[in-house]
Amino acid sequence: NNNSGGGGGANDKLKRETAEIPKLGPTGRPYTMKKRAGDDAKAASGGRRWDTAKIKNQFQTMLQVAKVSRHHVAFSGHGPPHKRMFACEMTLAMPAAWKDLGLVARDGDAIANAAAAGEIGVGAVTIKNNVDERGPRGRRGHDATSAATVDVSSSAAAAAAPPTYEVHGVGMAFAKAESQRLAIASLFDGIVAATGGLIDPSAPPNVAKILNEQRKAQQKKRSEMGRLMLELANSSRPNAEHKSSKGGWTATVTAYVDGGKKVESVGVGKGKSDAEDIAYANISDSLADTMGVLRHSTLQKIVDNSPGGSVASLRVPPLPDDAMDCLIAAMGTPEDHDRRMAAWKRAEQIAIDRIQAQILSDAGAGTDGGYRRAKVENTKHADAAANAAARAVSELADGEDLSEDPFLFNARREEISARFKAEEAARAAAAAADADSPEGKMKAVRDKLPILKIRESLVEALKTNPVVVVSGGTGSGKSTQCPQYILEHAIATGAGPDTRIIVTQPRRIAAVSVAERVAAERGEKAGNSIGFSVRLHGTSPRPDGASCEFVTTGVLLRRLMRDPSLEGISHVMIDEVHERDINTDFLLVLLRSLLKRRPELRVVLMSATLDAESFAEYFSTSGDLDWCGADAAAECDVSGVGVGAGVDAPPPP
Fold first, then answer.
1. What's the pLDDT at 152?
2. What is the rounded (10 degree) CA torsion for 222, 224, 226, 230?
3. 406-433 and 478-492 helices cross at what angle (nearest 10)?
4. How far apart are CA 25 and CA 28, in angstroms?
């Protein structure tokens, strides 16, 4: 019964009249009386003071802002005619939204117990069962109890109806308007006590605004969920149509899944974007009807467990038999490529010789005493010596003399391994000696990354699994730290000369920037243990092992055409594998075939999603890799992005 509680004019009818002046209200709550010692402008009750001059306006504001839908006001007269006093009795039903938003410190049982024990105030709160807040609105001046009570036909229905907690306030004064203000003050005290002080009636929270913001947030979350579900279902590009209707917009979203099955959803909202978000939010139910409940629940689990709201399923279509022939016809055979590269080298050398000849000619005609000629000659001799040294090291690394003198090769290998260990020890000692040194600061940054927690799990998984999937959100340190963990472990165990890592990046700027960052973390420049190679640009790492080279996916595909076995490469790491493109898919096909010929090769797939089961199934139980067994791929998971996130890495089989 919504009652504005009027001003209490002379024509208002009284609910009842008695000759005696009562001290307690109908619920046993003591009447609030006006102070007589110069405090006429204030009302005190329960130690809380309210401004009675503004309290009626504050009450009306609270009804609107705090979403109070039911309250009741009643007046009664008491005492002899020459000393007539007016009593005002107010009842307010606490909205369910207060409890849903956490604005009530106590639950229902706690409120009932506190009311029974008198902690809230005697008669301040009562409990009414089987009350439906959606009942008819009572007329002004009528009892709200009879208007809001629901006729329940069975005990089960009565038990299902939630109880209603009513707050009471009573006041008494010689004027009706004053008694109403005192009753409001008493009611405010009851609200503060019942809610544990979380609601200040004089400045109530905007419940309507909070509910609207929560509704929009939930709608946005459901909309994003629908979009992610369409992406995982490998749907066609969704088509959204908007139509203007009276008082809003209607959006219809249409997509096709599973080879042509139509999925359609409709949303209605005040604006185009609201209507489209509602349509995407409703499309999840349509997908369940189209693709089945089991598959829908599987995709839903992937979305729920994926960090950062980024998902992608592994979709590698079967490669046609004539695909390789078409690729060779379009790009040429490896021999054709080698001939083109040799011709390009010859043309480059001819151009360099021509430029140097021109420089020498200009230097002979000058007056610098032959300085420029000597500089060019010295540069040519230095380049020739560097090329000869590189060829010698390459021949030693390729093992051409193994059959002639294996003892010499092993001695050389141990010397190289000892040099790598000395470099790592010097770097670690510098970081430990001074925390403010560049090495110390870099080590502190690396130790704070969440990926550190799976370092041992990653190394252990690579010992027995040919394929390892590393899952972690953006910023966890996958791209920069995982190659270093493998490299540092190999150097520490003496396997540095046999360790050469290739890391692919989907874009050339990522390959260059990540390589420079990793080199900086190791206290060196690109060209020592870290290198990179992109189209028409690159810096090769050292040829005698313990190296990591960052390349683009296209560069690695071209290298596979020249060297299908990737001789000398011990680890292949594919970063951002969840970004589905044709180069990555084709590379996965080639690596799966290569693992059969080279079981010692290790493949690490780094993804920002938790859809690792698809990768594991693809590399273990599919096609030619049945020889690896069902557990050929392991998963190392970095949950979350912040420092100190949890890690779930299953042990190797």
1. 39
2. -170
3. 120
4. 5
**CA distance linking residue 439 with residue 429, whole number of Å:** 9
Q: Where are the alpha helices (DSSP H) in 133-246?
A: 144-148, 155-160, 176-194, 207-232
**Distance from chain centroid for Cα 103:** 28
Residues in CB range of 373: below 8 A, 6 or more apart:
360, 363, 364
Query: Across residues 118-126, what is the average pLDDT?
Result: 69
Token couple for 3: 């009652």
pLDDT for 106:
64
Q: Report the distance separating Cα 584 and Cα 592, nearest Å.
A: 12
pLDDT tier for residue 190 given thresholds of 50, 70 and 90: confident
Q: Is the pLDDT of residue 315 over 60?
A: no
Mean pLDDT of all residues in 380-387: 50
Alpha-helical runs (H) found in 448-563: 455-464, 478-492, 508-521, 553-562
Q: What percent of the chain has pLDDT over 70?
A: 70
pLDDT tens-digit readout, 594-647: 988 898 999 998 887 756 667 767 776 544 434 344 445 566 665 433 222 233
pLDDT of residue 505: 92
Residue 182: which of 265, 94, 73 has the closest Cα? 73
Task: Report the distance separating Cα 571 and Cα 500, nearest Å.
Answer: 7
Please, which residues bridge with residue 468 across strands? 604, 634
The pairing of beta strand 85-93 with beta strand 71-78:
antiparallel
DSSP readout, 242-274?
Answer: EEEETTEEEEEEEEEETTTEEEEEEEEESSHHH
Longest dimension (CA), the chain: 132
Amino acid at site 456: E
Name the nearest CA neighbour of 75 among 190, 178, 176.
Answer: 176
Q: What is the dihedral of CA 572, 578, 581, 584, to 10 degrees?
A: 10
Alpha carbons within 13 A on the beta-carbon side of 92: 29
Q: What is the pLDDT of residue 583?
A: 87
| DSSP-assigned letter for residue 312 | -
DSSP character at residue 82: G
Chain CA centroid to CA 444, Å: 25
Q: Is the pLDDT of residue 249 over 60?
A: yes
Quick one: pLDDT at residue 36? 37
Give, for 131, the enclosing helix (H) or strand (E). none
Q: Are 104 and 194 in contact (CB under 8 A)?
A: yes
Q: Given phi > 0 = left and psi -120 to 50 = alpha, else beta, which region is 68?
A: beta
Q: At residue 12, does pLDDT exceed 60?
A: no
The more confident residue out of 380 and 413 is 413
Burial class (CB in 10 A: 0-12, 13-18, 19+), 11: exposed
Segment among 119-133, 509-523, 577-591 with least mean pLDDT: 119-133
The full DSSP string for 423-470 is HHHHHHHHHHH-TTSHHHHHHHHHHTSGGGGGHHHHHHHHHH-SEEEE
Closest CA to 263 of 289, 241, 281, 243: 289
What whole-number distance in Å separates Cα of residue 499 and Cα of residue 491?
Answer: 8
Helix axes 371-398, 334-364, angle to 10 degrees: 160
Report residue 18's pLDDT band, with 50, 70 and 90 as the boundaries.
low
Nearest to 133 by CA among 92, 88, 174: 92
